[in-house]
Amino acid sequence: MGEELERFEDEFSKYMGTKCAIGVNSGSDALFLALQALGIGKGDEVITVSHTFISTVDAIARNGAKPVFVDIDPKIYCIDVTKIEEKITKKTKALLPVHLYGHPAEMDAIIKIAKKHNLPVIEDACQAHGAEYRGKKVGNIGDIGCFSFYPVKNLGAYGDGGMVVTNNSELARKLRMLRNYGQPKKYYHDFIGVNSRLDEMQAAILRVKLKNLDNWNSSRRRFAHIYDMLLKDADVVIPVEKGYAKHVYHLYVIRHKNRDRLQQHLSKNGVQTQIHYPIAVHRQKAYLNLGLRAKLPITEKISGEILSLPMHPFLKEDEIRTIAQCIRKCRQLM
C-alpha cells in the first residue's frame, strides 16, 4: 500500500486505458472482490463458463452466488454468445466471460445482451494481458476487468498478485476499501472486507516488467504463427485467431483425438506439455456436491482433446521445429 503500488496502479491503468486500477493479492481475489463490489451474494446467479481455471467459478461460489454454465465456442474456447440469453433468469445478476488462453471473448454480443437485461459484465482477463478486442484492450470493455500476475502469466510477478480495473470511480472506491478490511482510513471500518493487498516488492517488479509486456506478447504471437505454419497440415487442430481479436497466446493449445497418446509421445521425446483443463468445473467433485447440473457437450468433448504446447517469450525457433517434428512423427506411429 505504498509508493510502488500507487505508481504501478497508475501505470497499469494508463496501459489499459482505464480510469482506475486497484492492486490485490491474486487474480482469484480480483474476481472475488469484483463480484462483492457489485453486491452479488446469496440467491444470485452469475453466468460464466465451465472450461476455465477453477478460480473463475470459485469467486462466484465464495460470494454465496450460484454459477450458471454456458457452453463454449469450439474454435476459440470462450463463451458461446448464442447460448447466453437462454440461461438468463430473474436471479441473474452478472455475466462473467473469460478471455481464455489469451483470446478475447466476443464482447460486442456480450455487451449487447448485458445492456438488454441490465446486467454488469465482469471480464476475467487473467490470461489475457494486452489482448485486444477490435483494437481495445480486454478488461476495459465491461464494467470491471480482472487480472492475475501469477508468475507464469504474460505479465507475472515473483509471487502472487492481481489487479482490478474499472472506469467506475464509485466501484473503485469500494474495491480499495474491500481489499483492506473495509477501511476508508486506518482503524475505521465501514464494512467487512479482507486482507488482499498487492505488496510493494511485487508492485516494483511488475512496474519493470510492464514495460516489456508488449514486446513479450509480440514474441508469443510470432512463435504461435510459426507453430501454425509447421502444424497446419498435421493431424491436430491448431488455435484460431478471430478477425476482431489480437490473441496474446498465454497458452498455445492444440487438439488431438488421441491426446493422451500424443502427450506421452512428446514426453518421451523431452517435450513438456500440460492440459488446461482436463476436468471441466461442473464435473469437479466440489461442484458436483453443490448439485449443479449442466449439459455442455462442447466443453466435455474438448476436455479430452486439448493439449498445451510450450509457449513463452523466450522460445527458440529450432525448439518449435523440434516439437512440430515430434507431433508429426506421432501421427506416423498411430
Describe, in short, the structure shown.
The chain has 334 residues and is α/β, with parallel strands linked by helices. It has helices at residues 3-16, 27-37, 54-62, 107-116, 169-178, 200-210, 213-231, 259-268, 285-288, 297-303, 317-333, and strands at 20-24, 45-49, 66-70, 92-95, 122-124, 132-133, 136-137, 144-148, 162-166, 245-246, 252-255, 306-309. The strands form 4 sheets. The chain has a 4-stranded mixed beta sheet with strand order 1-9-8-5, sandwiched between helices.
Describe the structure.
- There is one protein chain.
- 37% of the residues lie in helices and 14% in strands.
- The protein is α/β, with parallel strands linked by helices and 334 residues long.
- The strands form four sheets. A four-stranded mixed beta sheet has the order 1-9-8-5, with helices on both faces.
- It is globular.
- The mean pLDDT is 96.
